[in-house]
Amino acid sequence: MYKFLTVLAGIVLFFNACSVKEQNIETSQPVKLIIKSPSIKLSGIGFYKRGGKYANLQIFSAGVAVLDYKSAGTICINDKCMTRGIFNENLFLQSHYSELVDDILAQQPIYKSQNLTKTDDGFSQNIAKSGAFDISYEVNGSSAEFSDSYNNIFIQVTKLGKEQ
Q1: How far is it, in rounded angstroms, from Cα 53 to Cα 135?
Q2: pTM listed for this prediction
Q3: Residues 47, 157: contact at Cβ < 8 Å?
Q4: Which residues have a Cβ under 8 Å from the Cβ of 97 and sit 6 or more positions away?
Q5: Is the pLDDT at 158 greater than 80, yes or no?
């Protein structure tokens, strides 16, 4: 009987340990997104969710999901899915670091805070590479605006309401 109880306790402990999962604290923020580039144009309202090591942005227009961006996986626009690298090349028309979109969505400094100037309610950055891009990036309060005048790209992310 003792041997049976020992084996049973071992099995219970094994399955209990395997079922414990790390809890990701997820935050959800309603956002308005505008993207204008030569290859991608969209505007809509949706939700930006973060948790653990992932970010997810879902944008809806007329009640239909037009963008489903998952930082750890594929990005889908109007049911056409692509890898993160292909999405970045299509959107920016240049090779930038792979987390650039994530930094813009999170309203964080880009390019390791290069040329960062702090403002009363945020910051601004101007970064240029001759023949490649001319970026102006500003974060003020609940809004972030990214523009690349060389490649004719504009991204605006505005947080709506309170983060939950």
Answers
A1: 27
A2: 0.80
A3: no
A4: 111
A5: yes
Strand partners, 57: 48, 69
Task: Check: CB of residue 31 under 8 Å from CB of residue 158.
Answer: yes
Question: So where are the chain's domains?
Answer: 24-159
What is the gyration radius of the CA atoms in the chain, in angstroms? 21
Cβ atoms of 82 and 91 closer than 8 Å:
no
Residue 61 — pLDDT band, cuts 50, 70, 90?
A: confident
Q: Are strands 54-61 and 41-51 parallel, antiparallel or unpaired?
A: antiparallel
Half-sphere exposure of 66 (CA within 13 A, CB side): 16
Q: Please give the order of strands across the beta sheet that includes 75-77.
A: 80-82, 75-77, 64-70, 54-61, 41-51, 27-36, 153-159, 143-148, 133-140, 122-129, 116-119
